[in-house]
C-alpha cells in the first residue's frame, strides 16, 4: 500500500515537473524568439484589425528601414507621437512623393484620417498569436512576477527535499 502511494506521488511529481518545464519553454520561446529574429513584440489592445488580428493578440513586428519595402496590403505598426502609443493598421494606399501611407483598420468602415509618414512605421506585422496578449499584460504586474518566483522556489525546494529523502532511503 505504501509503495502504491509513493508511486502515485512520483507520478504526480513527474507530471507537475513536466508541466512547469513546458510552460517555461513556451514562455522563453514567446519572449526570446522575436529578439533572436530581430523583431519587436507588442500587444494589440483594440478590435480595429478584427477579424485579421483579434484584440489582445500578440504581434511580432519586423522593422524595415526602406520605404520601398512597404506594399499596399501590408499590416504595419506605427508610432503615434501625439498620443505616445502605437497602432497597427493595413496600408491601403502609398504616396511615394511624400513617403507616407493611407491606412485603415480592417474592422473600420473608412480609412484613417490623413496620411502617416513612413518615418513613424515601426515595421510590418510578421506573425500573430491570438489572445496571448492577455497573458503578457497580466505578467507585467510586479505582484504576478513575485508569485511566479515564489512558485518556482517552492517547486525547487520540494524537488530538493524529495531528492534528499530518496537518497536517504537508498542508504538505509
Can you give a write-up of this model?
Strand 4 (85-95) and strand 5 (100-104) form a beta hairpin. The longest helix is centred in the N-terminal third of the chain and has 35 residues, at 2-36. The two termini are 20 Å apart. The protein is an alpha+beta fold and 172 residues long. It is elongated, with a radius of gyration of 24 Å. The chain has helices at residues 2-36, 132-139, 142-171; strands at residues 40-44, 57-62, 75-80, 85-95, 100-104, 116-117, 121-129.
Summarize the structure.
The protein is α+β, with helices and mostly antiparallel strands.
Summary keywords:
172 residues; alpha+beta; 3 domains; 3 helices
Task: Describe the protein's topology.
Elements: H1 2-36, E1 40-44, E2 57-62, E3 75-80, E4 85-95, E5 100-104, E6 116-117, E7 121-129, H2 132-139, H3 142-171
Antiparallel strand pairs: 1-2, 2-7, 3-4, 3-7, 4-5, 5-6
**Whole-angstrom Rg:** 24 Å
The number of helical segments is 3
How would you classify the helix and strand content by structural class?
A: alpha+beta
How would you state the average pLDDT, rounded? 87
The tally of beta strands, per DSSP, is 7
User: Can you give the helix content as a percent range?
Assistant: 40-55%
**By CATH's scheme, which homologous superfamily of the largest domain applies?**
Umud Fragment, subunit A
Largest sheet: 7 strands, antiparallel
Order of helices and strands: HEEEEEEEHH
Distance between the termini: 20 Å
Side-by-side strand order of the widest sheet? 1-2-7-3-4-5-6
Q: What is the approximate shape? A: elongated
Strand content: 25-35%
Instruction: Describe the oligomeric state of these chains in a short phrase.
Output: single chain
CATH class of the largest domain: Mainly Beta
